[in-house]
Structure formats: C-alpha cells, structure tokens
Amino acid sequence: MLGALNQFNRDPRQRKASLSASSKIPGVVTRFAPSPTGYLHIGGARTALFNWLFARHHGGKYLLRIEDTDKVRSTQEAIDAILDGLSWLGIDGDGEPYFQSQFEKRHAEVAHELIANGAAYRCYLTQEELAARREKAQAERRPFRIDSEWRDRTDWPEGESYVIRIKAPRDGETVIDDLVQGRVTVANAEIDDFVLLRSDGTPTYMLAVVVDDHDMGVTHIIRGDDHLNNAFRQLAIIHALGWPVPVYAHVPLIHGNDGAKLSKRHGALGVDAYRDELGILPESLFNYLLRLGWGHGDDEIISREQAIEWFDVNHVGKSPSRFDLKKLENLNGHYIREADDARLAMLTSPALGLSYEELPLLIKAMPELKARAHNLNELADGAGFLFAQRPLEIDEKAAALLSEEAKGHLALAHKALMELSHWSHDSTDAAVRKVAEEHGLKLGKLAQPLRAALTGKTTSPGIFDVLVLLGKNESLARIADQMLEPTE
C-alpha cells in the first residue's frame, strides 16, 4: 500500500500552532504496546519514551499494553525484560500493565457486533481457494485483493469453518492528518476485506489493537511509521463502529550511522544490554533516545524535567534518525562525570567483586576515575588497580616501560618516597620531582614507570593521586616489586 500513499506536507506553521510546547491538551492518554517476543529494542524504547513524554507534558496518562496474543512466541522472560527495561529508564506505565490476551472475548464480541450492524461478514473461503486466487492474480500481474462472494450473503452453512472479515469501503479515500507525516491519503480501493476474527475465534492484530485502544481511552497513538499502513485498516474498523478517531503521530524509524536499516552491527541491542554489557547510565540513554529524531534548538544535554517541559511532536523529524554508538558513549561520559560518586561506586562494585568494606576507597577514588571514563566498564577497569593483589599483573604495554634503566629510576623514587613523613599529593609530587631534577631526568621518565609499577597499566588517574589512594605502605611495596635493588 505504501506505493499508493499520497502525502501532502501541512504548513509547518499550522503544525506548530496545533501542538506548541506551551499548549496543554486536556485528557491526553497515550500507550506503548510491545509484543513480548524478544527484548525491548532501542526503537521500542524510543517509542515508549515519546509516548511517556507526550503524556507527561500534557498532564495526561501513559499506559502500557503487552500484546501477548502470539501464544507461541510470547514469553514471560520477554515480558520481564520489557518491564525491567522501562523501569530502568524511568518510564513505567501509569498503573498495572494491560495484557491483551485477557480480553480476547471482548475482541470477539466486537467482531460479531460488526456483523450485526452490517460492517463485517462471515467468509467461508478456504485457504486453497484463496491460494488459487492469489496465484491467478500473480499470473495476471495484478495486485491481489480479497473479493469474497460471501461479502453480502447471510445464507451461512452450518458447521463449516469461517473467518470474520471487515467490509472495507470500496469508494472514496481515507485521510489521516498525521502530527509527524502530515496529511496522508489512501484510496479505499487499496484496502481489502481483511480478517478480524480467525476461524479458531481468536482476534487478529488489527481488531485487537482498535478495541484495546478504544477501551483504554487512548487519544493519541505515537508509534513507528512502519505502522502507517495499519492505521488505514484500523480506521476502517473505527469508522464502522462509530468510535472516536485517535490522533496519529507516526515517527520515522531509526537507521544505523551508515543510513541502512538498524541492526545489531550498528549497536542495536536490547535496553538491558546497554545497561549490563555496555555500562550505559539510564539518564544517558534517556537523553540520547530523546535526541534521536527530536530536537530543541541546539540543546544536546537535556534533563528529564526539561524534556517534559519542552517535548512536542511537531519537532519530530520526518526523516529516519541515525543511531551512533560512539555519540551515545560520549554522552554517557558526560553523565558519568556528573553522577554521584557513591552511586557510581555501587554500580561498578559488582564487576570488581568488592565487599561493602572496600566501597569507601572506591568512592574516594571516583572523582579521579570518572574524569576519563565513557562507561561503567571503563570505570571498573580503571579502578581495578586499587584492589589488585601483589605481585601485580603487568600488561604488555606497561611491561615495555619497565626497562632495566627504568627499574633503576624506580629505586631512586622509592628511596625518596620512603623518607616522607607526611604522605599527600603535594609531598609525593615534590619528592618525585626532586629526584628527577637531581638526576637530570624528565618527569615522564619517572612517572611512566611509576604508573606501570603501581597500576600494571599505562593509563590511570594522575600518578600522585594513585600514590595517595594506595597509601604509603602499598605504594612502596608495589614499587619495590618492580625496581632494581639500589647499589651503594
């Protein structure tokens, strides 16, 4: 049907006036309706976020509906992952989730109501008959449309299997004034008599969604533009029932940074993977998803409170946004630097296997550790030296710094540091600099092997911060493990 869509862009000034950031629409109800057949993917999370923000901005309700009618593919594990991901992002639904499978009886009642008012019919066409007609259409190179001889019949055979089909309008056109896509028009001849109720009595997606949205009081449907075609079919049901028409906003999908459809190779993971595997903070992903396809001037760092105040659908772009994992990590680095040190310590301590008694040292080190980290994994990796056991494991790059000459320099530094009566950033700095000056060394000639000996790596917080964090005894012991014995 996409080929038959005629889109007309509304005047942007009219779109802005219809939904300005300062206006409030009374009685707004939005919904997020995932299918629990897998993890909460990044596109679904953004859809949920936009619905949550729209409802919060207008003082309305944001509801969660689990569309679990696919009994074969729906799993409790997926349901739990969706609920957990939404909770982690802080965009839970208002009230308990609505499970679609619990209302199949209601869906069936509506299908039979449509038969009663002449807007739907029993169709006894078999799968074999439909397949033959489809093959004929293909052979004749024409679109296949359902043209059932049962459309206007009521002499239904007893005991035979049937489906219930909508009597789709055949003349005229259906128009949607979409808040994102603008005016979109489809000729009604393009909409066939699709199935509402299967032969086993279960509802199709089209019917269940319309009934659920109506019964939940949904006023605004914000979802991916891959559902735009569905909207025209769903409107056929809504019009046949005489129900209020919701306001639609179909948001362009997310692509990879190369412009191709988003996939795992672009970093399209489940929300739980961004948290558990990539070490992303929820406020970072919240901010990043918000900026995927929506903007507020040149603002990049947007708080939750600002997002609620500023969010409006008319600033959602009409082109697909591009997901860039590197930009997400850079944004995450900002939020890590802004985050509370104790919170970061609690988040990174499991990866380090720390006891409660070891947390104070990690909290103390956090201001230095978080200055260069882009994710929680880097934080944990950077903090590892604090809790490493002697003898330290030295990585390949650090080992290259510990030449025989460098080990001799370590002995000089060890001697000077051991003589300090007061152990602080300034005193250790002065002692090491004095050794360098007395022996005609550049500071790096001492600092680099010191870092390698103290941390086992070539990167770390400032070397004098490392000395203070480790303390005098541990620092001297680690240096001694790597230095040459001094000669008289």
TrEMBL record:
Listed GO MF terms: ATP binding; glutamate-tRNA ligase activity; tRNA binding; zinc ion binding
Documented EC number(s): 6.1.1.17
Protein family membership: Belongs to the class-I aminoacyl-tRNA synthetase family. Glutamate--tRNA ligase type 1 subfamily.
Biological process, per Gene Ontology: glutamyl-tRNA aminoacylation
Motif ('KMSKS' region): 261-265
Motif ('HIGH' region): 34-44
Residue intervals of the Glutamyl/glutaminyl-tRNA synthetase class Ib catalytic domain: 28-329
Job description of the protein: Catalyzes the attachment of glutamate to tRNA(Glu) in a two-step reaction: glutamate is first activated by ATP to form Glu-AMP and then transferred to the acceptor end of tRNA(Glu).
Domain Aminoacyl-tRNA synthetase class I anticodon-binding: residue ranges: 345-481
Reactions catalysed, as given in the entry: tRNA(Glu) + L-glutamate + ATP = L-glutamyl-tRNA(Glu) + AMP + diphosphate
Quaternary structure note: Monomer.
Enzyme category, top tier: ligase
Keyword Transcription appears in the UniProt entry: no
Region named Disordered: 1-20
Binding site for ATP: 264
One Gene Ontology cellular component: cytosol
CDD domains noted in UniProt: GluRS_core
Keywords on record: Aminoacyl-tRNA synthetase, ATP-binding, Cytoplasm, Ligase, Nucleotide-binding, Protein biosynthesis
Keyword Kinase: no
Protein's UniProt name: Glutamate--tRNA ligase
PANTHER family tied to this protein: GLUTAMATE--TRNA LIGASE, GLUTAMATE--TRNA LIGASE, MITOCHONDRIAL-RELATED
